[in-house]
C-alpha cells in the first residue's frame, strides 16, 4: 500500500480558486517571496471600517502555499485587521500546520505574512 504524501483535503483547498486573481483596485496589496523555496504570493485586500471584506490572491507556489492562500481568502471575510493571527486557530489551518507538514511551515504562513504586510 502506498502512503499518501499530501492529504486530499489540502489538495481540495489548493484547487478552490474562487478568490484567485487580482482586481488591481485596492491600496492594500503586498507581494512576498519565500527565500528558502521560491514560493511567491501576491495579495490584494478590500478593507472597510477596519475589517477585511475581501481578499484576492495569486501565487507561484507549492500546493501548501496555494491551500493556505485559498483558505485565508475564505476565512478572512469580516475579520478585524487586529485579529489576523487568530485565523490560524481554524481547524483547517491546524491541519496544514500539523507535525506532518512542519518543514512546509514557511510556505503555509507566507500568505498570512503577505496579508500583514498589505495592511
Write the layout of secondary structure elements.
Layout: H1 8-15, E1 28-33, E2 40-48, E3 51-60, H2 63-75, E4 79-80, H3 91-96, H4 105-118
Antiparallel strand pairs: 1-2, 2-3, 3-4
Helix pairs in contact: 1-2, 2-4
What's the gist of this structure?
The chain has 119 residues and is of the alpha+beta class. The chain has four helices and four strands; from the N terminus they run H-E-E-E-H-E-H-H.
**Gross morphology:** globular
CATH A-level architecture: Alpha-Beta Complex
Distance, first to last CA = 47 Å
Poorly predicted parts: none
CATH topology: Sufe protein. Chain: A
Overview of the structural elements:
By secondary structure, this protein is of the alpha+beta class. The protein has one domain: Alpha-Beta Complex (Sufe protein. Chain: A). Helices cover 34% and strands 23% of the residues. It contains 4 helices and 4 strands; from the N terminus they run αβββαβαα. It has helices spanning 8-15, 63-75, 91-96, 105-118, and strands spanning 28-33, 40-48, 51-60, 79-80. A 4-stranded antiparallel β-sheet has the order 1-2-3-4. The longest helix is centred in the C-terminal third of the chain and has 14 residues, at 105-118. The radius of gyration is 14 Å and the shape is globular. The mean pLDDT is 89.
Can you give keywords for this protein?
119 residues, 34% helix, globular
Amino acid at each position: 500500500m502506498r502512503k499518501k504524501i499530501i492529504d486530499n483535503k489540502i489538495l481540495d483547498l489548493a484547487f478552490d480558486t474562487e478568490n484567485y486573481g487580482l482586481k488591481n483596485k485596492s491600496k492594500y496589496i503586498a507581494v512576498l517571496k519565500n527565500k528558502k523555496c521560491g514560493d511567491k504570493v501576491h495579495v490584494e485586500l478590500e478593507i472597510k471600517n477596519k475589517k477585511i471584506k475581501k481578499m484576492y490572491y495569486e501565487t507561484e507556489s507549492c500546493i501548501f502555499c496555494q491551500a493556505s492562500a485559498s483558505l485565508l481568502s475564505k476565512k478572512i471575510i469580516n475579520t478585524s485587521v487586529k485579529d489576523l493571527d487568530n485565523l490560524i486557530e481554524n481547524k483547517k489551518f491546524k491541519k496544514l500546520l500539523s507535525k506532518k507538514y512542519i518543514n512546509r511551515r514557511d510556505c503555509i504562513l507566507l500568505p498570512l505574512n503577505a496579508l500583514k504586510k498589505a495592511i
